[in-house]
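Feature request disguised as a bug report, sorry. It would help if multi-protein outputs had a clear separator. Right now it looks like this:
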Amino acid sequence: MGMTQEERRRHKDGMLIIKTLKDETSVVAKPMSPSKAKNIPSNVSKEIRRVISNTPQHEVYGSLAMESRTFSQRKPNDIDMVVSNPKAKAYEIQQAFKRKGYKTKVVSNEQFNSHVVQIFTNGEWVDAADIHPYSEHSQKFDVYGQSVKPQTINGINVQRTSDQLLRKANSVMAMNKKTGTYGAAPHRNQKDVSDFITTARILADSKQLQAEAELHKVKKVRKALKSWKRHAKRIKATGTHRDPIPETQEQDFIAFAANNPEINVEDIKFRNKKVLTGQRQSIQKKSQNMVDMSGFDNFVFDSQFTQKSKSVNLLDIKPKKGKGRSIFW
């Protein structure tokens, strides 16, 4: 069937979002507490933390992990995790509930080696822990990028917000080859779209907050320089009036950064007044190395793709002869 015009627009916007935010982190990093999950009683939380932290290879992901990355998040129902031996870990967590007197059972899907620990509360069985194989969690995504290593907070490996963003993008921006439809499966669509937007907002707010904080520090530096400029004038020091980075180059820099969201701003450098270079990060496939050429008709891109190193690729911009308005010169 292919994508509709609206879907193509959303896909383009989605790619800009994930390319811009894929390397960002949330400014919020609260300790992950199992008791924050609705179906995990507070008197079992400490024991579950001990079980998880004593697991060499593990990661807590999903809604409970994201609860630690924001001050505004819906209350998670259970804890989602990946470990190297899901079945053994499920029964270990089940024993933690039993020791506190809870009626509990493990529901397994042997085909996928996934196991859910349930407890009986308020007259019904509810999921408390959803456990999956660690080996299937680390992967390349069809839409863009690959899984990001977790952050260790107080002994627990917690999913990074950027990893959640990439996973949700891989769901809501995917094309189903069998049905020819765009987007998440119907039973996941509402939740995954909501999670994608929420996660993007966490990272966008964090990125903006960090930028505004840095700008505030720069403003204080400029104010502090005034006394030194007065001193330079008194002793007749020369050269202080020259602008080290003229406004034209500043605008070039901003335009280059805006049109190349997959390149970190701190990696953009001037080779000379008319050539900008940018170091790409976390590139997985050669097809993903190619920058969207729209809006760059007046430039030649020289991309050097290195097979041995996936983290270093230089993008050079050089003027190309021909008519047309240039955003750099």
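(second protein starts here, but nothing in the output says so)
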Amino acid sequence: MPASTALRNGLAKAFNTLSREFQNGAVVKLLKPSTVANEFTEIRTVTDKRFFEYSNFRRNTLLEIADTSSQLADDIQDATHVSIDEVVYTILTGDTLEPSGTNPVWQLFLDLIEREKGYVSQI
């Protein structure tokens, strides 16, 4: 097994353990804009192998996902937003290349949507 795969699998296990301990019950969804104004379409619910960290009073978030399935890669490319427990964040910067080597996880940098930007902050 390549070292990057072993690292990713270890991080997936750690993310699952940390999520159960600190984010138990949190629902994380990848979203894209709906054809209806101010609404989103759910692309996928990320149920495991993920961990998120808040900063700046929950205004900014780093979401990391330790999974390299091809469907997840497609979903991440399609996503423009993420909801965490129904609070919607814009994806400011996200990985455009699949995880590999010493960067074994997807990383999405998120920013809380403000009501003034045209979307409501909750779905």
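Even a blank line would do. Unrelated, but nice: The first strand starts at residue 28 and ends at 33.
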